[in-house]
Please model this.
Amino acid sequence: MFSYFNPVDLRFGENVVSNVDFTLYGKKAFIVTGRSGSAKKNNAIKDLLGVLDAKGISYEFFSEVEENPSFETVDRGAELFRTKYCDFAVGIGGGSPMDVAKAISAGAKMEKKVADLYAIKDSISCYPVIEMTTTSGTGSEVTQYSVLTSPNDKKLGLRTNKLFPTVAIVDPRYTLTMPADVTISTGLDALSQLVESVISKISTPLTDTIAVKGIELIKMSLPEVVKKASSLEHRSNVSMAATFSGLTISQTGTTIVHALGYPITSHLGIRHGLANMLTLCQIVKNTQKFDPERVKVATAPFGSANGLCEFIDSIYPRPKLKLSEKDAEIFAGEIDLKAGQVLNTPGNYDFGFVKEIYRSL
Ligand code: NAP
Model:
């Protein structure tokens, strides 16, 4: 017995934005983008404005989203959304602007600070959100999560079915402008999510099928786009894998790999997808002791768990962190061992085990 719930209207392919009827969502859009202007360079804004202008829909820009976006950014955006009387949000970018667009839609509708939404998450309501992804990694365009950084520098996932975007636009052409470092960190984030989804205790036959296809696409095409950034065929495959990773984690969530990665990103500034790579192999190998069948399914495209680790090293030679005893303790202290991410990972994870993982990095 299993269930599958994902209500996102997904559009995948070249120029799919022109097929979306934005008039269904209102008369004024609130367009959320990152700070460094990538949404202009990759033409996503131009394509969107072409469609909005043709339909007489007006818009307001909020182009202030940083990487690992803060509560404060969401609150500023929600305030602007309200004072400019917008009807729906459009997030353009990677996970950061897309997650902020979701949180703004909730903060503006509820007239609350985002920090106050966590306690009431399942009873919130939101304005419609259309996500246009321009990286190929997080799958945020089809998930019910918004990952934000609190004032004390902790990454906190706001998770509720109310946050599922209304429409997801995945046009692989927008990823052509990604520099190699972003291509690698986001592509490996997708790989991590796909593998984690398979090893999760709550994986299903359907999520397995989607995830294994995604893992095969990453294996085939991520090395190709690292070598040749302009290959649209391989970019499309990695974009598809990333969206598949969102579809699977929208059902299974992630595992302790993600939980371990957050302190690495917050304290050391190592990008999310790369932070996950530092512990994925260890967790997969530990899972082998408790549920070898899950690991067999997840690593089949690479032949074995070692094959998976060799693939990762061929794309991202993992650095040694050499954390001090004290830092390992601080990082380990930040892991909520009762969180679903940890409980859904096969094996037993206590403070000592987690600290040892950090010490070994
Ligand atoms: P990101 O933080 O959104 O963006 C990283 C950098 O890449 C930014 O400088 C961005 O520029 C740039 N960029 C984006 N698209 C580009 C393009 N097409 N060409 C050139 N540069 C481009 O990266 P991300 O890895 O996609 O997102 C990471 C965030 O997502 C983390 O906060 C993570 O925790 C979260 N996440 C969320 C979910 C979920 O389900 N909600 C899942 C996994 C991860 P701009 O400043 O112009 O945007």
Q: What stands out?
A: The radius of gyration is 19 Å.
